[in-house]
Design goal:
Blueprint (H helix, E strand, L loop, with lengths): L1 H52 L18 E16 L2 E8 L11 E4 L4 H4 L5 E7 L2 E7 L2 E4 L7 H35 L13 H19 L2 H27 L21
Antiparallel strand pairs: 1-2, 1-4, 2-3, 4-5, 5-6
C-alpha cells in the first residue's frame, strides 16, 4: 500500500515542480519588465544632472525672476523659524523663511540635524538660499554652506540601483524556475534531487544592499554616465560573487532521494 502511495505521489510531485517552474518564470518576466522602468528614466536624469553640474550663477533679470531659471539663483531671506522636526522617521533641521520670498524658498527647507548650520541658524537671521529650476539646492550663512540631499546629480545612480535590485531579483526567479524544472526531470527519471535553496540568509546582501551601496559610492565619486556605469561595475564586482557564493553555500547539504524530505521543503530560489 505504501509503495502505491509513493508511486502515485511521483506524478503529482512532477506536476507541482512544473507549476512552480512556470510560476517562477512568470515572476521573472514580470520583474524584468519592472526593472526596465527606472532604466528608461536614466538618460533624461543624466541630461538633467549634466545641466545642473554646468549651471552658473544667474545674472541680470534671471537673478530676480521666479520662473524656475536653469541658472543658480540666490535668494536672501530672513529666518522665521528654525529647529528640529520629524520628516518621516528621520529628524531634520527645518528652516522657514519670512514671506514674501519667491518659490521654492517659500517652502520648508530641511537641513541636516547634525550639520554646522543647525548650530548657526536662528530665527531673525539672514540666510542665502541657492535654487536651481524649481529646487532648493543649498543654504548658506556666514561662509558655511550645506548642500541638500536628493539633488539632480544623485538621481541617475539611485535609479540605476533600483533597476539593479529588481533585475537581480528577476535573475534569481529564473534560477528558481530552472531549479524546479530540473527537479521535475530528475524525479521523472528516478535520480537524486538536490534540495531547494532558501531565499534568505546571505542572498539579500547581493540583491538589496549592494546596489544601494554601489549607487551611493558612485554618486559621490563620479558624474553623469560615468557614475551610472560605475554603479553597475561596483555592483557586479560585489553582488554577483556574493550571491553565487551564498547559493553554493546553501547547496552544501548532500542530495536527497526522490522519496526523501526535499518534497516537503518550502519553495526556494534554485535547484
Amino acid at each position: 500500500m505504501a509503495v502505491r502511495s509513493v508511486e502515485r505521489s511521483v506524478p503529482e510531485r512532477i506536476r507541482r515542480e512544473r507549476r512552480q517552474a512556470a510560476a517562477w518564470t512568470l515572476l521573472g518576466l514580470a520583474l524584468s519588465a519592472v526593472a526596465a522602468v527606472p532604466g528608461l528614466f536614466v538618460p533624461g536624469r543624466v541630461a538633467t544632472e549634466a545641466a545642473f553640474e554646468d549651471a552658473r550663477p544667474c545674472a541680470g533679470e534671471a537673478a530676480v525672476r521666479d520662473d524656475g531659471a536653469s541658472c543658480l539663483r540666490t535668494i536672501r531671506g530672513t529666518v522665521i523659524s528654525a529647529g528640529n522636526a520629524k520628516s518621516g522617521k528621520a529628524t531634520v533641521f527645518r528652516v522657514m523663511l519670512r514671506p514674501p520670498v519667491p518659490a521654492p524658498a517659500d517652502q520648508p527647507i530641511d537641513l541636516d540635524s547634525h550639520g554646522d548650520l543647525s548650530e548657526l541658524v536662528e530665527p531673525g537671521e539672514r540666510v542665502d538660499v541657492t535654487t536651481w529650476r524649481d529646487e532648493v539646492v543649498a543654504v548658506s550663512q556666514g561662509g558655511v554652506r550645506e548642500r541638500l540631499s536628493g539633488l539632480p546629480d544623485e538621481t541617475p545612480t539611485v535609479l540605476t540601483g533600483a533597476a539593479l535590485i529588481v533585475a537581480w531579483s528577476a535573475a534569481l526567479a529564473f534560477v528558481a524556475a530552472f531549479g524546479s524544472a530540473r527537479r521535475a526531470r530528475r524525479i521523472a527519471t528516478g535520480r537524486p534531487v538536490v534540495p531547494r535553496v532558501p531565499l534568505g540568509r546571505a542572498k539579500p546582501v547581493g540583491v538589496l544592499i549592494t546596489p544601494i551601496v554601489a549607487a551611493f559610492t558612485a554618486g559621490h565619486f563620479w558624474d553623469t554616465w560615468t557614475a551610472v556605469v560605475m554603479t553597475v561595475v561596483l555592483w557586479a564586482l560585489i553582488a554577483v560573487p556574493a550571491t553565487i557564493l551564498a547559493l553554493r553555500w546553501d547547496r552544501e547539504p548532500s542530495s536527497a532521494s526522490p522519496s526523501g524530505r526535499q518534497a516537503d521543503t518550502p519553495l526556494g530560489a534554485s535547484g
